[in-house]
Structure formats: structure tokens, C-alpha cells
Amino acid sequence: MAQAWIQKSAGNLNNLRIREIPLPEPVEGEVRVKVSHCGLNLADVFAVLGLYSATPKGSFIPGLEYSGVVEEVGPGKKTGFKKGDSVMGLTRFGGYATHINADARYLRKIPSKWSLAQAASFPVQALTAYYGLEDQGAISRMDSTGTVFIHSGAGGVGLHALQVCDHFGALPIVSVGSNAKMEFLEKEMGLSRDQIIVRTRRGFALELDHKLKRFNRSGFDVVFDAIGAPYFKPLYKRLNPAGRLIYFGSANFMPQGNKPNFARLAWQYLARDKIDPLEMISSNKAVMGFNLIWLYSQVDRLKRLYEDMMEIKWKPPLVDRVFPFHQAPQALEYFKQGSNKGKVLLQVEEN
Fold first, then answer.
1. pLDDT one-digit tens code per residue, 63-115
2. Beta-sheet pairing, 343-347 with 30-39
């Protein structure tokens, strides 16, 4: 038997329960992983609250990424893994568990000198940053004045997006939610204060203009946005011709409590920013959206994407806080507050 966090019915963080689940023998193509750490993501929170379109119907186990040690390999064809290998993995839900019978195609060996905690902080964040900025944003095709705006630069995705910019020689300008996060980026990532905006609803547009003027840039070539309103329109207006706004999350819809306020969410939805397609033609701008979980079914494409992104010399991921596995609700509540600098994890305790 294994243990897992089960959300019987989405809509409330308090519905999460830890339960024993069956653990069958791994079949051909599977590898049983004894999980060490589970990575938390924004999609986990939205799924548990019933606000994520890809959430499975009925009861489900949250979690999209994890790290651990191979405990058993299924029979038949070679998987490339053996008992005792340290691995990190992706899963379309099911990550908040003590053991996982994983499809070997979604596992990767951990880079040397990385800890299991660091490994669980990597797959979703790095793939999101690389897919968004390169596959969607075409960052590798920018010239020497390429300029990228990144929301939440001190979060897990933001920290990896900064490394993508560094790899391709693009100038990043980022937003953060506090002075503490600005100081964190200065210390950990070597950014100057001229590259960082501490977000406020009032004055955001003026801050954008100040940063662009400081670096003698006319606008942004790519905007990497996981927040939305009220920052969407000012950023869209400052896209250069042929610029792309890559939209991959709506953190502005995050409820304050343990369950959604649907009246407030409905108002936010109706008041959301809208773009005129005819105006996009005349201004030569693009808005592109993506959901990383879509790639899970694109096995060959995901494999190529992973191989391409590993050309980057990634720094070991920064871990903000590690919660014991039995404190998943508390970890999700902490994560949804948005104060973390780097990754939030669950650690599976040894029996």
C-alpha cells in the first residue's frame, strides 16, 4: 500500500484527505518510484479549488512533479532505469503520493550534485519557462536588443525564465510582489534594481516606461504573464511590433480563503481584459496562451523539448520551504499566499 492525498470533491482546501491506496506491481514500461519530495504548483491549488479546467472528474490525487528513488522496474522492455536510481518525474496529477508507478517516459535521472529536493523543484518550472519563452516566444530568434518582461520573477517559473533569458542573451525586466523579493533577486540572480518592479496597481505603467527608458528600449519583445489584470493591458500596449504576450496563468483569480467566492470570480471574469483581433493586425502583436499539461500527451514532443532545454546550464533550483508530507493543506495555503521565493515542497517522511 501507498499513501496519497485525495481530493474527493474539488472546491475546498479542507476537503483534502490522506488515505492509503493500492500499490500494484509495475507493468511493462513502468517504474515504481519511492517518492522523496513533491513539488507544489499553482495548478495544484486551482485544481483542488475546482478552478482548473484540466482537473480530473471526481476524486483525484493532486500533484504534477516529484523526485525519488527507483524501487522496482516493471518487466519487459528496457526503461533505462534500474533499482536505486535517483529520478525526477512528471505526472498528469497523482504526484502527492508516497509511491508512484510511473510511466518511464516521463522520468529523468537527476543531474549530478543536485539534491532530491532540488530535483522536485525543476521539471514543471523549467519546462514552463522554456516552452513559453522559446517554443511560443521564439526568444532564440531575438536580436541583441531583445527584451523580455517576466511576472513573478522570484517564483519557481520566474527563476527559470531568468536563466532562459540569460542563455539566449535577452534582457529581462521582472515584477515581484515585495521589496524582500527584489533584494532576493539582486542577491541570488544578480539582477540590478533597474530590472525589477515591485508591483503596485497604481503606477505600474509608469514603472514600465521608466525601465524601458533606462535601458533605451522601445518596448518588450516578449511578455511572460501568469497574473493577468490589472497588468495585462499596460504590458500589451508596450509590446514591440511582432511582439508576443505569452499568457500561461491567472494568479489574479486566486481566492483568498479555503474555497472560491464564485460571485467575486464571476465579476472578475466579466471584467477581464479583452483584446480586439482587428487591432492586433494593425499593431502586429500576438497573444498566445498555453497550458503545460497539454504536453503530457505529446510524448515525443515533450522528449525533444526536454532535450533542447537541457542545453542550458541550469543552476540547482532554489527551494523556499519544505513541509512534511502530512502537512499538504498547510503547504498549499502557504503557497497560495505568494510570499515564497523559489519552490515549495512536500517531503515524504521515512516510515
1. 999 999 999 999 988 899 999 999 999 999 999 999 999 999 999 999 999 99
2. antiparallel
Would you place residue 7 in the very low, low, confident or very high pLDDT band (cuts 50, 70, 90)? very high
pTM of the predicted model as reported, rounded to 2 decimal places: 0.94
**C-alpha to C-alpha distances, 163 to 66, 67, 138, 248, 343, nearest whole angstrom:** 22, 22, 15, 18, 15
Structural domains of the chain sorted by starting position, each given as residue range(s) with its CATH number in brackets:
2-122+314-347 (3.90.180.10), 125-293 (3.40.50.720)
Q: What is the DSSP letter of 135?
A: I
Average pLDDT over residues 301-323: 96
- 173 DSSP β-pair partners: 149
Nearest to 333 by CA among 319, 342, 321, 316: 321
Q: Among residues of the chain, what percentage have pLDDT more than 70?
A: 100
b/e code 202-240 from CB counts within 10 Å (16+ = b): eebeebbeebbeeeebebbbbbbbbbbeebbebbbebbb
Q: Count CB-CB contacts under 10 A for residue 13.
A: 19
Per-residue pLDDT at 351 exceeds 70: no
| Chain centre to alpha carbon of residue 350 | 27
Alpha helices in 84-170 (DSSP H): 116-119, 123-130, 156-168
Q: How many other C-beta atoms lie within 10 A of the C-beta of residue 101?
A: 19
